[in-house]
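Database export, one record per block. Field names are fixed; values are copied verbatim from the stored entry.
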Amino acid sequence: MKISKIEVSNVLALSRVDIELNSPLLMVLGNNEAGKSSLSDAISMAILGEPSRVKLKKELGQLLHDDSKKGRVTLANGDAVLGEYKLPGGEHQVANLPGVEHLPYLIKTSLFAEKSTDERRSFLFRLTNCRASTDTTVGMLLERKCRPDLVEIIKPLLKGGFPSSSDEAASRAKEAKGAFRQLTGDNWGSKQSEGWKIHIPEAPDMPDVSPEAINKEIKKHAKEQADVENGIAYITKLEGQIEQAATFYTRKDELEEAAGLLQRAQVKLQTDRESLEELENSFKANQTKLAEAQAGVVPVKCPCCDAELTIKGQTLEKFAGLKADTKATSDLALNLTKTRSAIDMMKRTIDNDIAAVTTAQNAANDLEAHIAAGVPDVKEDALRVAQEALAGCRDRAGKLRIRVEAMKQRQELLETAEQTNADAKKHHQDVLAWLEIADALAPDGIPAEILATAIKPVNDSLAILSRLSGWKKVVIGNDMEITAAGRLYGLMSESAKWRIDTLIACAIAQISELRFLVLDRFDVLDIKGRGQLVGLLLELVAMNLMDQAIICGTAKDVWPSMPAEVTQVFIENGTVRGA
């Protein structure tokens, strides 16, 4: 990249600057606050379109020189405008320059060192056009002897980048560790989990847990359980007999007392039945009398003497008057009602008598059977002996049940041990395999190998540049740390950092093929260092590794006796002289 003309008007400390560039090296000199950095910033704005001194568009007016209303910077190569920036509107235009994305590192040389580790790595990949395709990464994984089946699983994720792929592999390893722990009950460890075997404790009392041996114990348990059930039935019977013996005489007395009421109940039943018969006969007689009385209430005249007569059964009587006959009839009706009530009551009494006779008769029958059955002959300690025997049966049955279950569990443990050991081995191998992939995809794994390809041309260039300049050898490590003669960048002095930044920028300019560079504040170097800088740049021009470099620094005046490849300008009062 070459610039043949720089035009600046009313930008920062510059009022009017017109510089014609006919040489590959431009030195911009001047006193402090003369506008050297303003020129560097103006070139940056024209190319990148990003002012470095303000952040907001509304603040662009602050970049105008003094009270100017408009400002502009234009960079041209012949008739072609390479870049232009206008104030205060911020209008920007730039030519389609190959590698323009690398220009910020060539205009602000400390930019690479200011970036994070990941940003440096990404930049070097872009700079060297180094790419790792999915197939390339898969091939590198297989070269590392990573398991092909797991590589196929992780392959689709490689498109998302190394960090996410490595995280996924680590997550899969964690899942495999969880599966190992769930199966074995032990935490996974790379050494202690190697060759893990399930622990099966010794069981001298169960040397044989074959199905035949287990069935034999099951039969023993069934026999003991049957004895338990028979013992329970026998004790229940004994307890009934003991209870029966204890209540025999009490029951006998109760039945004798109840049976002793039979004769009296029978006599009373007979008496009450006779009384009922008398009441029923009386009721019928009075019923007849009432009918006769009711028939004689109406008098008839005697055909002979006209006397009033009443019929009383088979006889005729003189009518005594309606009132006397009505009272006799009412008395008979009342007597019938009372007799009916007495009959009903006597029937209920007879029902009770029948029930009493039945109860007494049943008691007599039960007494006869009770006496015939006699008192059960139960030995005094029979129940205790039976209970002790039952307890023994229960104990043996319980122990046999536990033994059968233990034998079944041991049989299952032995049968599944081989599979458990195989599963544990698989989980262990899965953990190792996934960790291997995670490590391979980690920054210091395959990415580091690929990065080494990207770093090598940069470090090769830095080695040459260090020799040409006579400065300490600068190296970018795989970890993206920058060192000079083995010392970390962050521990360096200001001038040492400036040298390092310059060499890195020269390498970027060379590899990107932009071959352009802007260096500000080169006065941070001592006299010797400044001479080494100019000598380096001229050497790079001679080697066709640099097209153009613009360096700015504080000086009282231009340098004497400079070669034709160097153009010097001196800035003062916002303008330049010597261009």
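Remark 1: The first strand starts at residue 5 and ends at 11.
Remark 2: Residues 1-97+519-579 form a domain with the Rossmann fold fold (CATH 3.40.50.300).
End of record.
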